[in-house]
Model the fold of this input.
Amino acid sequence: MKALGLIAALCLGVLLFYISLDFPSWGDGRSPASQHLSPYYIEHTMEDTSVPNIVTAVLADYRGYDTLFETAVIFSAGLACFFLLRVPERQAPAARFYRHLSTGITFRIEKGGRLPENTGEFERIDSVWVPYDVIISVTCRLVVPFVQLFALYVIAHGHHSPGGGFQGGVIFGAAIILFAISNNLRRTLRRMSEKTSALLSSVGVMIYAGTGVLCIIMGAGFLNYSALASILGVDPVAARSHSILVVEIGVGIAVTAVMVWIYYNLSSAGRQDEGL
Amino acid sequence: MDRFKEKGKQMIWPLDIIILSIVIICGIAAISIKDLLGAAIIFGAYSFMMCLLWSAMGAVDVAFTEASVGAGVSTVFFVAAVFRTTRRTKD
Amino acid sequence: MEAIGSLIIAKYNYWAVIALLLIGLYAMIAKKNLVKKIIGMNIFQTAIILFYVSIGSKKGATIPIILHGPGDSAHAVHAADYINPLPHVLMLTAIVVSVATLGVALALAMKVYSQYGTLEEDEIQKKIMELEPG
Done:
């Protein structure tokens, strides 16, 4: 099987090498990819939308329909992970581990046993527990707010610098995942529950689609942002710039919630009682 | 117009060749190593080298996305999956 | 010699992309572990993204964010001074799709492991043959 795979890959390689001799040279300005549509985008972005970042303008305004369905794809990936992995509470194995705080004795309670009350003397621990590390926990708690602030900056500044909705959303989700890794998964679930992340991911897609439907209500086509000029109170060029920001916020919310949701399901194999 | 002359970039080809060779070596190592956790980490390094390559070519938005997605969230997903399944592999 | 040298300089990025495509394809076909196959799939996807991004580069051009100073709204923008932004837009969507596919593929691999106890493809096939002889 390995030899067959190697021979197939090498045949493909020789064929692709022969094809690559016909490609345009690297860095050629007259290659066909740079000829027909992209000069229009480069020259007219500033006067149509007043957004200097050409990639953000093309992604959220000229090709906004594709980005709507890209957001729908990432939402359906989160949904698929949920349906594949999630194990409801009553089917999960119920052996729990507790640790007495003052003496350090750990014990395990099987299914049907009586759990200790929350008196503060016992803490519930994971099955692969290491002793409590102060440095990691405190450092990550100090760092997480700044990472979230940076993520909000990336979303908001996507017009003038590299960035935008998707990048900021992933960084925000990564900040919450950092909190879940350094502290308990159960503590993170108390702050951002699974129901919240599922709800937020669909809210993000709805913001994007709702902006498009609002454009239809105002009289123009779907996702034609210059129709929103009367609501926002500015001229049509600035209306496109502000609508790009609204749409990027929707994408960012959806992506954050989906990253956190997939992490919850992957790291606990669906049971959501202990993480990495 | 002379603002563009000083902003325009030329491709630094020794840097390019070094990063490309590191990328290919990381790719071969990620699929040959027998420890799945090591493969996940080398895959994170491969993603980060790709991000450097794209930012050297001028694709800053793509490099930003790959840095946050590939070298961040994607590596965490791999490590989480390896943690919940097995870590050794025969092949 | 001179012609071969200029050929290599003009096209070596395509050859690097072809090498990465072959590595990814070989990992998907010939490796038996499921996680190795998923890694091969991701290597293949990033190699395709590298190919598209390298098509859009232009010699002597700058990044696709329009230079403008304060109050500088009316100077002409020439397309030859900025690199082509269209492949970047398409590849942003491609990276998003690749992370979505990675999440679902890892979830499937975990489900297979919880059902059969192993991630190696030949052992899984043996267990399927034992369970259903038909």
User: Anything to note?
Assistant: The two ends of chain B are 58 Å apart (CA to CA). The mean pLDDT of chain B is 86.
